Amino acid sequence: MRIAIIGLPTSGKSTVYRLLTYGQPSHQAGRMGEASIAVVRVPDPRLDRLVSLFKPKKVTPASMEFIDLAPLTKGSGKAGDASGQLLPQMRSADALLAVLRVFRDERVPHIEGTIDTARDAATLEAELLLADLDVVEKRIAKIEEGLRKGKKEDTSQELALLKGCRQTLESERPLREVSFSPEDDRLLRGFQFLTAKPLCFLLNVGENGGPAPTPAEALTATSGRSHPSVFSLPAKLELELAELPPDEASAFRAELGIDTSPVPRLLKLCYDLLGLITFFTAVRDELRAWTIPRGATALKAAGTVHTDMERGFVKAEVVAFDALMRCGSLAGARKEGLLRLEGKDYLVADGDVITIRFNI
Ligand SMILES: Nc1nc2c(ncn2[C@@H]2O[C@H](COP(=O)(O)OP(=O)(O)OP(=O)(O)O)[C@@H](O)[C@H]2O)c(=O)[nH]1
Ligand SMILES: [Mg+2]
User: Fold this and answer.
1) Could you give the number of structural domains in the chain?
2) Ligand 1, residues 10, 69, 73, 100: which to mutate, most atoms within 8 A of Cβ?
3) Cα of 63 to ligand 1 centre, how many Å?
4) In this predicted structure, what is the pLDDT of residue 83?
5) Are residues 182 and 212 in the same domain?
6) Both 264 and 344 in a single domain?
7) For 53-85, how does the pLDDT look when each residue is reduced to its tens digit (9 = 90+)?
8) Which of 55, 62, 138, 242 lies at a C-alpha separation of 20 to 30 Å from 289?
9) The Cα angle at residue 70 between residues 213 and 135, in degrees rounded to 5
10) Which atom of ligand 1 is nearest to the CA of 235?
């Protein structure tokens, strides 16, 4: 799963990226054209507790990719950026994390000269809409040209669907607000529409104290519509705290009256945004967390671990995380009747500890 960090110039995208990737293995970071990309391990307290139970030699947490993109400005939706990479990079992501500037700092000028978070949110949303509209219009023109030239291929369903999308976008509504049939969904997937992707606004609230605007205040521009999710954090301050030794950081946190680091909460939010859940496997000496979409079956879970397991799937032995912790071991859970045998259609629940039985 890949999340693109987007936003206007100097909103704090790179600061958020550095915060999210702080302390991560550097070999997992790379370049994607102008952008930086990194794999971030997702902390999960349940994994730590399972370690004490299974005592594995190797522990592999779930992970997620983040890309730090070039700034988006007025006009980017239609024309992209100078490198031409911004729009394709955004389209390659599964979700968008849009950093909005709330912090005030005269040393960091804003491209519009003033700080107005709602205006910036509206600019971003408008550019995403325009980018999708551009794709829709180009495709409609191509189909219509084909029809004029008497092409045989049946494009009527696609054309009707795209005209529906055009109408939605022209009325300034993102495509994520429309519920498409599974078939239409499949047709649209290849376009990688930006307004169909889950979107989270990240308010970069600054370190100066004072009342941070509530999400509703900061985002009046989007009011009246289904709100994307919103998360507030002082990115620069949090990065500075992350760079301190842990005891100094906690002393500062206590002084500033802030709780723990917001990073695990932000990663959890990304999970929720993408509708993802975690299951665990403990095979031989490796304990591992895996990510799958909510509503996925045991068969799909098997396929996530290995294609052989999906092909030769027989049964899944499943125990809920809480039940396993209560029983203290898989054997204990089996004795209590809490280790269940499930078939391929079983819907995996968040936190399930699963052993796949399969034939090769
Ligand atoms: N005072 C203050 N400065 C911040 C904060 N967040 C970011 N900055 C500063 O603002 C400047 C721009 O931050 P970046 O994280 O590079 O912003 P960006 O969105 O990646 O900028 P571009 O990639 O150039 O569009 C840097 O000098 C940061 O240190 C903040 O919360 N408070
Ligand atoms: Mg940057």
Assistant:
1) 3
2) 10
3) 25
4) 84
5) no
6) no
7) 999 999 999 999 999 999 999 999 888 888 889
8) 242
9) 95
10) 31
**At a CB cut-off of 8 Å and minimum separation 6, what does 304 contact?**
290, 291, 292
Per-residue pLDDT tens digits for 305-339: 999 999 999 999 999 999 999 999 999 999 999 99
pLDDT at residue 209, as a whole number: 59
Q: What is the pTM of this model?
A: 0.89
Beta partners for residue 355, in sequence order:
317
Closest residue by Cα to residue 302 from 290, 294, 320:
290
81 shares a domain with 209: yes
Residue 145 maps to which CATH number? 1.10.150.300
Cα of 308 from ligand 2 centre, angstroms: 42
Residue with tokens 């002393």: 251
Structural domain includes residue 277: no
Residues of the chain below pLDDT 70: 26-28, 209-228
Kindly state the tokens that stand for 72: 């988006």
Looking at the fold, whether 102 and 207 belong to one and the same domain comes out as yes
Rama region for 56: left / alpha / beta (φ>0; ψ in -120 to 50; rest): beta
289 contacts 61 by C-beta, under 8 angstroms? yes
At residue 223, the pLDDT reads 43
